[in-house]
Known about the structure:
By secondary structure, the protein is an alpha+beta fold.
Amino acid sequence: xxxxxxxxxxxxxxxxxxxxxxxxxxxxxxxxxxxxxxxxxxxxxxxxxxxxxxxxxxxxxxxxxxxxxxxxxxxxxxxxxxxxxxxxxxxxxxxxxxxxxxxxxxxxxxxxxxxxxxxxxxxxxxxxxxxxxxxxxxxxxxxxxxxxxxxxxxxxxxxxxxxxxxxxxxxxxxxxxxxxxxxxxxxxxxxxxxxxxxxxxxxxxxxxxxxxxxxxxxxxxxxxxxxxxxxxxxxxxxxxxxxxxxxxxxxxxxxxxxxxxxxxxxxxxxxxxxxxxxxxxxxxxxxxxxxxxxxxxxxxxxxxxxxxxxxxxxxxxxxxxxxxxxxxxx
Length: 330
């Protein structure tokens, strides 16, 4: 088996890449918690450390990465709380070194937001309303969309065609995944939603809470899609709890952008697609040595049995009435 491209990213190689951009490193490197890409905190002489992100080879084209950067710079220009990539002396944000695409960022600290605090949820709602108001000004041209084909159909096909599903569980997974995709397709056809430029992966791990305000990071998965994609991961708990969270988020959101209530019917479909996509993502990355070390519980018979159980539970949830706004909210 050939070496994975990331095997070349030794500490010395990382420092050489940063110094090639005109920085004088002090020798300190700290690998940060990232698996899709490789992200490091780099010490710089007489300056604050910077963050270096080495993009996974062959995942995004240069045009797609540049569009991500342009989006972040547009948000920063509008004073939206994002950490945009730094520009080089030549005005570039996408840098190259030894066949790697990389970008540099200011180091920003923060903690995960407390989502059980309704004030925090309203602030997040306001931020996401502003995000979508800015995003609606123009479409993505290079970035893909969140869709059933790539997240659902291609995910299940990859797992089945590459023999990740154990033989004893294969018929159950094959039948269940087909039924789920049929259900999700029907739900999407029922909801005539508009697409927008999104963060795309808006979970609390990508939000830093600083001085009672959020700072959003990691736009690596920014895509087009329905607005609810950037909201639903903020909701958790029992239905009555999610109802309150929904109302609170949208109270802030609609100060800046109108929300289409019909999109609430897509929440569980989007959750289903995310579950299917996540398992296929782990499988696709299994040749990267970092993944078996970090996700040792993956690709065992127990994992796949539990995954199928989770999908069965999701199938039942899809038959339940979706969240709805309280009467009087239109």
